[in-house]
Design a protein that fits this description.
Blueprint lengths: L3 E5 L12 H11 L4 E5 L1 H4 L2 H4 L9 E4 L2 E4 L1 H11 L8 H31 L6 H23 L11 H10 L12 H11 L2 H17 L6
Parallel strand pairs: 1-2
Antiparallel strand pairs: 1-3, 3-4
Helix pairs in contact: 1-4, 1-7, 1-9, 5-6, 5-7, 7-8
The structure holds glutathione.
The site of glutathione (GSH) has 9 residues, from helix 4.
Length: 219
């Protein structure tokens, strides 16, 4: 029996592949590991049964036999360590790929999330207009640095790895913001990630959950 992950029963992103179970689905698809998905409502996420899996009452979680994990980064790293294909075999390359996973989650994602949270919850506040340019500048700083390092390479450090999987999903959170377009190499990088068959399968599976909730209207 394969692992079971949790995902939104009704995703606020309406199936655009932004909810963080997408990272876990993509990793499992890359390594060819079948998995089950348990869909949870917001109320279920905050209930004790789910909090036993994730104390913060969030998705995704991952259960496999006796092991229960939370945090998308930890889950993807676990998958990458158990299967071949997502991390280099050579020790130094493996360590660098893990460093890039951390960079995606702890250096690049925070300013992106802070900006989008401000758009969501601070739009009507008196400080929104003054604060937003500063938040966008912080995002641009990271994108410029990342784009400078990526250069003309296809992936962050040699072959595609869990580092790219993580970075692409983080950058995708900027879709629709109008910010990414100034960094063509990052747009191409995201497109390379999205073109991977494993990404497409993961995306389709997540979208199918949303589509099942809202069947097309009939006349
Ligand atoms: N750092 C966590 C963040 C998890 C997270 O923010 N999950 C979101 C969905 S993408 C969630 O459950 N939001 C609902 C909530 O926080 O109530 C991870 O990477 O797994």
């Amino acid at each position: 029996m394969g692992p079971t992950i949790t995902a939104f029963k009704s995703s606020p992103d309406r199936g655009r592949g932004l909810a963080r179970d997408m990272r876990v689905r993509w990793a499992l698809e890359e390594v060819g590991q079948p998995y089950d998905v348990r869909l949870v409502t917001f109320a279920e996420m905050k209930a004790p049964t789910h909090r036993a899996l994730n104390p913060f009452g969030q998705i995704p979680t991952y259960e496999d036999g006796d092991l229960a994990l939370f945090e998308s980064g930890a889950i993807v790293l676990h998958i990458a360590e158990r299967h071949s294909g997502l991390l280099p075999n050579e020790a130094a390359g493996r360590a660098r790929a893990i460093a890039w996973m951390f960079a995606a989650l702890s250096t690049v994602e925070p300013p992106i999330v802070e900006r989008s949270m401000a758009v969501l919850v601070e739009r009507d506040t008196p400080w929104f207009d003054a604060r937003q340019p500063m938040l966008e500048d912080r995002v641009r700083t990271r994108l410029a640095e990342l784009s400078g390092r990526l250069g003309d390479a296809d992936w962050l450090d040699g072959a595609f790895s869990a580092a790219d999987l993580m970075m692409v999903t983080v950058l995708r959170r900027l879709a629709g913001s109008g910010i990414l377009e100034a960094y063509p190499s990052l747009c191409a990088y995201i497109a390379r990630g999205e073109a991977r068959p494993a990404y497409q399968r993961a995306f389709d599976a997540q979208l199918a959950v949303f589509a099942a909730l809202s069947p097309p209207a009939t006349c």
